[in-house]
Amino acid sequence: MHDKITEETFWKHLEDVREGMLAVGPSNAVPMTHYADPETRALYFITARGTDTGQAAMQPSEAVFIVASHKQNMWARIHGRAVSVRDPAKLDEYWNRFAGAWFDGKDDPNVELIRMDLTEAEVWLTDGNAKFLYEMAKANVSGAKPDVGAHDHLRFAA
């Protein structure tokens, strides 16, 4: 069995994941790139002001971000409160050519920066395909439950 998943482990894995599905308030989940800020236990997203996600974040709203990264062997359902923020320093920090492809620069009035303050996360980490296949084969032969990785529930203090 694996040790408990720590916050440090969670942030380390999340930093290597590039995208997930974000749902803010009543909006439908949409693909989004996140930018992790472990020090403040927050995720940031750059979206367009007129989208359902951008509109939902105009007021603080419950949010869920789902990540599934086979490459990083991480799956997580992350909960928090999302809100639109005006933070030029954070926008400068996270702005990149991919975000720039959607807008006429970071000063475009349609740019919306969303901050999601994390409250909790359910996380699954695996050791990769070879270990997974070995554990499945072993379980079929021995009848024992496979050890396919770690699963934990994290709570983030406010």
TrEMBL record:
For the General stress protein FMN-binding split barrel domain, which residue ranges apply?
7-147
The name on file for this protein is: Putative stress protein (General stress protein 26)
Q: Which Pfam families match?
A: Pyrid_ox_like
What is the phylogenetic placement of the source species in the record? Bacteria, Pseudomonadati, Pseudomonadota, Alphaproteobacteria, Rhodobacterales
Question: Which InterPro entries does UniProt cross-reference here?
Answer: Split_barrel_FMN-bd, Stress-Dev_Protein, YdaG_split_barrel_FMN-bd
